[in-house]
Design goal:
alpha+beta; OB fold (Dihydrolipoamide Acetyltransferase, E2P); 5 strands; disordered C terminus
């Protein structure tokens, strides 16, 4: 799943809205069923953060722009300092599927060692790699722990 900036550009076929999704310079337009959007977001030019899976908007991210900031900060460290398969310079969102769990570890005050072990388990179990040396993973974990990330559970969530 990816979280992308979204804006309603107008009505589509009956029962759907045309929504522009963007990630950096990449942009696409998709049809979104009315019922997936809160009534306050159904007007043209309404902006929100969409959770997208397989090119389809599956829901609206309640934390909106704050989550995009969190995602960007963690992604920056993963791409610059971890990048175990070496593709971050070509595919900047390659590791986005791991950001949610990493964020949970960070706000849970998980130790540097535990975060490094989590990254190693991703490499070994999900990616089928031989694993980055632990001293390098500890450096990545340290950089992740230095991020000043907001806690989503303290934000007021909009009704949806």
């Amino acid at each position: 799943m990816r979280r992308l900036e979204a804006v309603v550009i107008g009505p589509g076929k009956p029962g759907v809205l045309r929504v522009a999704l963007s990630h950096g310079r990449e942009q696409s337009v998709v049809d979104v069923p009315f019922e997936r959007l809160h009534p306050s977001l159904r007007l043209p030019n309404s902006r929100f953060v969409a959770v997208v899976e397989g090119g389809e908007v599956v829901r609206v991210e309640p934390a909106g722009r704050v989550w995009l900031t969190i995602q960007d900060e963690i992604r920056r460290v993963l791409n610059a300092d971890w990048d175990p398969i070496g593709v971050a310079d070509v595919v900047d969102d390659e590791y986005d599927m791991y950001i949610g769990r990493i964020y949970s570890l960070l706000i849970g005050r998980t130790s540097e060692q535990a975060i490094a072990k989590h990254l190693l388990s991703i490499e070994l179990e999900r990616m089928g790699l031989t694993g980055t040396p632990m001293n390098q993973l500890l450096k990545v974990a340290s950089k992740l722990l230095q991020l000043q990330l907001p806690r989503l559970d303290t934000l007021k969530q909009p009704n949806s």
